[in-house]
Structure formats: structure tokens, C-alpha cells
Write a sequence for this structure.
């Protein structure tokens, strides 16, 4: 039985999109077909994600957490060892990883850091490696990349029968793409050394995403392949696992004003990211586009500031003890 059925996404089996795909032009001369909706490819996701980062305070929000909480977390690691083992799960292009590595370096001068990375997207791996090549201050850090999904890595470890332990494991904004959230967290928690820490960063239940996914789920297309999971879903898993954790909430916003400007290319990419769908505005039925635009404007999703529409992107930083 699936241990976390509440986190599986609803595929809307009752919704019939075909009815609106075949459309008659105004002069009724001939029928034409709107291209069918499809999910983003890995490459398209990278481009859509970049548009999100460029217009959100997500990384600034993480920087605030790094400044306020991370030095204490890093200082507690290692237990006097000469090498500290770090594992990044779904590390993307590595910007956040390297910021945390530098905080770890500052907390433990001269200590060797063995940093392993699990990241399935080849473009992200290449960008991460380039970032490392350009950094002059990582001499005491070793890097090993595993171009795998988290479940592929887990399978590989179990097949080898060797279970390397880590002092710090982080899973930043990646559990939306995991099939079995409960067992994924359970496995990576089992990879912690004594006195190790697991950091999970996930969307807060106070975010616009939480409202969109729970209250306005009918406004989203079935092409969105992610799981709709927020902080409370993760803490429910942690409670069932019986582990000790703390949650730190940090505010973040995403300026989605361009989503409401007809034909705006940036707005188009933002809507693709939001829905996980290629060219959502060009391929979605008009009624679905209208419903989603209306949902995005609801006060529990967005606020207005200086004439801009700011979608709530609040984050929960969950620190789990070994």
C-alpha cells in the first residue's frame, strides 16, 4: 500500500479536455485543431525554471536562512572528524550547494569536505561542474556527481550492499518529483551519521502554491507531472517515522505580473513552469486558462504591490536530526 496516499496527485480522470481542443474559427469555414497539451521535457523545464528564479525571491529567501540558521547547523556537524561527508539530493545547478559548502568551510576551517551530488538532469550537472571549475576557494572539497534520480541512487546503494553515511544531507525543493515520498525520506534519513542532519526545503502551507493545489486543483492541467506536496505533508511523514525535527518558515514571493500580459514570452514561460506544461497558454482550452488566471488572483494565492501581482512562494526549511 502506498504509505502517503494523500500526496499522490489527482489525474482528473473525469475531465474531458478533448471537447475544447477542436475549435471552430469565427467564419466557420473549416475546423482547426489546437496543438495538444504535453508535459515539459527536461530541457524545457530548465528554461521555465530559470524564468521563475529570475522573477522570484526564492534564492534570496534561502540566503536569509543560510545567514540566520545555517552557521549553527554546520557548526554542530562532524563531531571533530577530519572529513565531513555531504550529500545533495536533487542539487540542480549547484548554486545553493556551494553556498552551504562555504558556510561549512567557515565553521570547520581546514577540514576536508567530501561532497556527493545526486542530480538526474545532464544540463544541471554540466552547469554545476562549470560553477565548481570557476571557484577558487574549494581546494579542500571533493566532488562526486551521480547523474541519477534519487530512487535510482537508492536502488544502486541497496544493490551494492554498502551504505555510506553522511554528516549532512539536503533535499532542496525536489520532493515534488519523487514517487514514494515516505520511503525516500526514510532511506536518506538512514544514510545519516550519528549527530548528522537532514535538511528538507519545501513549499510552506502558507504559500500560494498550497492554496492553488488544494483549493484550485481543478484549474490545473493533467500534464503537470509533479506531486502536490507542501510542508505539512512532509512533517506528517516525519511524525510517522518518529524522528526529531524543527521547521523554520521564511517568506518568499514570485512576481507573476507578466502572466497576465497577452503574448508576453516571459509570462508564457512562467505559466509553463506553474503548470508543468509546454506552451500552456497556446495549447490549453480557453476555459482552463481563464480559471487558472482567476485562481492566481485570489488573495490566498497572490497579493498586489506597487501595481505588480506577487504570488506567495513561502518556504519551510525542515531540519531533521539523525
Amino acid at each position: 500500500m502506498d504509505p502517503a496516499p494523500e500526496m499522490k496527485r489527482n489525474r482528473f480522470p473525469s475531465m474531458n479536455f478533448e471537447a475544447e481542443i477542436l475549435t471552430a474559427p469565427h467564419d466557420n469555414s473549416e475546423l482547426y485543431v489546437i496543438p495538444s497539451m504535453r508535459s515539459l521535457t527536461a530541457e524545457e523545464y530548465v528554461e521555465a525554471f530559470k524564468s521563475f528564479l529570475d522573477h522570484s525571491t526564492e534564492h534570496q529567501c534561502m540566503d536569509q536562512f543560510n545567514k540566520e540558521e545555517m552557521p549553527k547547523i554546520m557548526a554542530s556537524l562532524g563531531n571533530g572528524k577530519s572529513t565531513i561527508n555531504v550529500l545533495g539530493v536533487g542539487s540542480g545547478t549547484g548554486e545553493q550547494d556551494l553556498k552551504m559548502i562555504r558556510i561549512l568551510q567557515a565553521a570547520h576551517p581546514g577540514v576536508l569536505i567530501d561532497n556527493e551530488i545526486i542530480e538526474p538532469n545532464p544540463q544541471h550537472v554540466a552547469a554545476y561542474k562549470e560553477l565548481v571549475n570557476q571557484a577558487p576557494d574549494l581546494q579542500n572539497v571533493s566532488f562526486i556527481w551521480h547523474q541519477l534520480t534519487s530512487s535510482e541512487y537508492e536502488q544502486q546503494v541497496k544493490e551494492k550492499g554498502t551504505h555510506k553515511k553522511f554528516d549532512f544531507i539536503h533535499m532542496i525543493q525536489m520532493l515534488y518529483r519523487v514517487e514514494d515520498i515516505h520511503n525516500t525520506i526514510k532511506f536518506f534519513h538512514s544514510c545519516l551519521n550519528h549527530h548528522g542532519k537532514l535538511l528538507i526545503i519545501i513549499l510552506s502551507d502558507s504559500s500560494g502554491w498550497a492554496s492553488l493545489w488544494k483549493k484550485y486543483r481543478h484549474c490545473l492541467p493533467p500534464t503537470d507531472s509533479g506531486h502536490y506536496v507542501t510542508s505539512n505533508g512532509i512533517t506528517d511523514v516525519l511524525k510517522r517515522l518518529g524522528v526529531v525535527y524543527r521547521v523554520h518558515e521564511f517568506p518568499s514571493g514570485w512576481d507573476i505580473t507578466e502572466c497576465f500580459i497577452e503574448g508576453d514570452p516571459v509570462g508564457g514561460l512562467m505559466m509553463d513552469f506553474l503548470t508543468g506544461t509546454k506552451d500552456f497558454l497556446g495549447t490549453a482550452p480557453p476555459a482552463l486558462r481563464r480559471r487558472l488566471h482567476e485562481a492566481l488572483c485570489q488573495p490566498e494565492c497572490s497579493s498586489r504591490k506597487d501595481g505588480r501581482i506577487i504570488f506567495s512562494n513561502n518556504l519551510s526549511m525542515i531540519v531533521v536530526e539523525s
User: Anything to note?
Assistant: The domain at 40-321 is CATH 3.40.50.150 (Rossmann fold). The first helix runs from residue 18 to 21. Residues 1-33 have pLDDT under 50 and may be disordered. Residues 4 and 320 are 19 Å apart (CA to CA).
